[in-house]
TrEMBL record:
<dbReference type="InterPro" id="IPR036986">
    <property type="entry name" value="S4_RNA-bd_sf"/>
</dbReference>
<dbReference type="Pfam" id="PF22421">
    <property type="entry name" value="SYY_C-terminal"/>
</dbReference>
<dbReference type="GO" id="GO:0005829">
    <property type="term" value="C:cytosol"/>
</dbReference>
<dbReference type="InterPro" id="IPR024088">
    <property type="entry name" value="Tyr-tRNA-ligase_bac-type"/>
</dbReference>
<dbReference type="InterPro" id="IPR002942">
    <property type="entry name" value="S4_RNA-bd"/>
</dbReference>
<keyword id="KW-0648">Protein biosynthesis</keyword>
<dbReference type="GO" id="GO:0006437">
    <property type="term" value="P:tyrosyl-tRNA aminoacylation"/>
</dbReference>
<dbReference type="GO" id="GO:0003723">
    <property type="term" value="F:RNA binding"/>
</dbReference>
<dbReference type="InterPro" id="IPR054608">
    <property type="entry name" value="SYY-like_C"/>
</dbReference>
<feature type="domain" description="RNA-binding S4">
    <location>
        <begin position="343"/>
        <end position="396"/>
    </location>
</feature>
<keyword id="KW-0694">RNA-binding</keyword>
<keyword id="KW-0547">Nucleotide-binding</keyword>
<dbReference type="InterPro" id="IPR002307">
    <property type="entry name" value="Tyr-tRNA-ligase"/>
</dbReference>
<keyword id="KW-0436">Ligase</keyword>
<dbReference type="GO" id="GO:0004831">
    <property type="term" value="F:tyrosine-tRNA ligase activity"/>
</dbReference>
<dbReference type="GO" id="GO:0005524">
    <property type="term" value="F:ATP binding"/>
</dbReference>
<keyword id="KW-0030">Aminoacyl-tRNA synthetase</keyword>
Length: 405
C-alpha cells in the first residue's frame, strides 16, 4: 500500500484545482487529509455512450490527484444506473437502455481512463460496477431505502419543476435514480464522492442516506464544468465535444476549434498543469498573448495525456499542414452520384467512406466527419451535391470527393 502524502502544498493544490465546492466544508476536509488517513473515494460514469469524453476526463483527472497522494480510488461504472437514466438537467425522460447496450458501451472505459489513472502498481485504482449490488436489491429493500427520502425532496429539482409547468410527464423511475446513486455510496462505504457541479443533488442524496443509516459523514466535492467565459458549454450539437476515442488528429483539431474562452478553464480542468502554471497562462492571455499559440499548447497537452507525446507531435504537424496550410492529399477518390440531396449519414455509407450507417453515426457523434473542411455533428444534415463536388473527410486519412453526374 502506498504511503499517504500529507504535504500541505500538494493538498492545497488538490483542493483548489478545478474544485467548486466541498460539503460540508473545505476546511473540515483539509484537516482530514492532513491527518494522513486514507480516503476511500469514487466517481461514477454511466455508459450512455461508447466512449468517455473530456467532461469525464475532468473528474478522472481529479481522481488521479487523490491516487497520487496515496488514497483509495474507485472508478465506478454505472451499469445499473445507466439503465434508469439520470434525469439531471433533462427536459424529458431519457431513453431507457438495456444491460447489453450498457455493457457494450463501457468496454473501453478502463482503457481510456488509464490515460489519467493507474490501474496497476502499489496503489491501483479499482473498477467497480453498481449492478453488482443493485441487482441484488429486492422490492422490499427498495421500499425501505425510499423511506429515507421525500417526494418534496425530489420534486424540488429545477428540471422537474419546469416539466410540471410545461405539463410534461415525470416518471416514477426518474425519482429512483438519485436513490440508486445514493446507494452506491452506502454499498462502497466511501469517505468522498466527486462529480461535476450538476451532480450535486445526486451526490448529496448519498451523503444524506449514509447519515440516515448511521454510517460515516461522507464528503462531497463538486468540480467546475468546462465552459467558456460566457458560461457556454461544449457539446455534440456544436461540433466541439472531445471524445477519448477520437484519434490524435481529430482531438487536436476539435480543441483548436474551441472558442478562446475555453483555453484557461481547459488548462485547469483537463490537463496536469499546476494552478501556478494555470494562473500564469491566464496572465499571459490577459496581457495579449496570441490565443492561437496557447490553444496549440492546450491541444498538445491534452492529446499527450490521452495518446502520448509522440502522437501529439504528429497531430500538431498534421494540423499545421492540413488545416493551417490548407493542404489535402494530392489524390482523392471521386464518387459520382445522380441524386443531388443526401442526408450526411446516408451519404457516408453510400460513398463507402463508412462501412454502414451505424458507423457513420458513431463517427459523426465523435466529431470525426468533416464536410468541405468543417466538422459536422448533425447526422441528418442535408448535403447538396454539386458538379464542382463536395469534399468528405472521415478521421485523418479518409477522403472522398462527391460530384453530381
Amino acid at each position: 500500500m502506498k504511503k499517504i502524502i500529507t504535504d500541505k502544498q500538494k493538498i492545497d493544490e488538490l483542493l483548489e484545482k478545478g474544485v467548486e465546492k466541498i460539503y460540508p466544508s473545505k476546511d473540515e476536509f483539509r484537516k482530514r487529509l492532513l491527518k494522513g488517513e486514507r480516503i476511500r473515494l469514487y466517481c461514477g460514469y454511466d455508459p450512455t455512450a461508447s466512449s468517455l469524453h473530456i467532461g469525464n476526463a475532468i473528474t478522472i483527472n481529479k481522481l488521479a490527484q487523490f491516487q497520487a497522494l496515496g488514497h483509495e480510488v474507485i472508478f465506478l461504472v454505472g451499469s445499473f444506473t445507466a439503465t434508469i437514466g439520470d434525469p439531471t438537467d433533462k427536459a424529458s425522460a431519457r431513453k431507457k437502455m438495456t444491460r447489453e447496450e450498457v455493457d457494450e458501451n463501457s468496454k473501453l472505459y478502463k482503457e481510456q481512463a488509464s490515460a489519467y489513472l493507474d490501474f496497476g502498481g502499489d496503489n491501483p485504482a479499482q473498477v467497480m460496477n453498481n449492478s453488482t449490488w443493485n441487482d441484488k436489491l429486492s422490492f422490499k429493500d427498495l421500499i425501505e431505502l425510499s423511506a429515507h427520502f421525500t417526494v418534496q425532496q425530489m420534486i424540488q429539482r429545477d428540471m422537474f419543476q419546469k416539466r410540471l409547468q410545461e405539463e410534461k410527464p415525470i416518471y416514477l423511475h426518474e425519482f429512483l435514480y438519485p436513490l440508486a446513486q445514493a446507494y452506491d455510496s452506502v454499498s462502497m462505504d466511501v469517505d468522498l464522492e466527486i462529480g461535476g457541479n450538476d451532480q450535486m443533488f445526486n451526490m448529496m442524496c448519498g451523503r444524506d442516506l449514509m447519515k440516515s443509516l448511521g454510517m460515516r459523514d461522507k464528503f462531497v466535492m463538486t468540480l467546475k464544468i468546462l465552459a467558456d467565459e460566457q458560461g457556454k458549454k461544449m457539446g455534440k450539437s456544436e461540433g466541439n465535444a472531445v471524445f477519448l476515442s477520437n484519434t490524435p488528429e481529430e482531438m487536436y483539431g476539435i480543441i483548436m476549434s474551441w472558442s478562446d474562452g475555453f483555453i484557461a478553464p481547459a488548462f485547469e480542468l483537463a490537463t496536469k498543469k499546476t494552478m501556478a502554471e494555470v494562473k500564469e497562462i491566464k496572465k499571459k492571455l490577459g496581457e495579449g498573448v496570441n490565443p492561437r499559440d496557447m490553444k496549440m499548447k492546450l491541444a498538445f497537452e491534452i492529446v499527450s495525456i490521452v495518446h502520448g507525446e509522440k502522437r501529439a507531435r504528429e497531430a500538431e504537424e498534421y494540423f499545421v499542414r492540413i488545416v493551417q496550410k490548407k493542404e489535402i492529399p494530392e489524390e482523392i477518390a471521386e464518387k459520382k452520384l445522380k441524386i443531388k440531396n443526401w442526408k450526411l449519414v446516408d451519404l457516408l455509407a453510400e460513398t463507402e467512406l463508412t462501412s454502414s450507417k451505424g458507423e457513420a453515426r458513431r463517427m459523426i457523434q465523435q466529431n470525426a466527419v468533416r464536410v468541405n473542411g468543417k466538422v459536422v455533428a448533425d447526422a441528418e444534415m442535408e448535403i447538396e451535391i454539386t458538379k464542382e463536388g463536395v469534399l468528405l473527410q472521415k478521421g485523418k486519412r479518409g477522403f472522398v470527393r462527391v460530384v453530381l453526374k
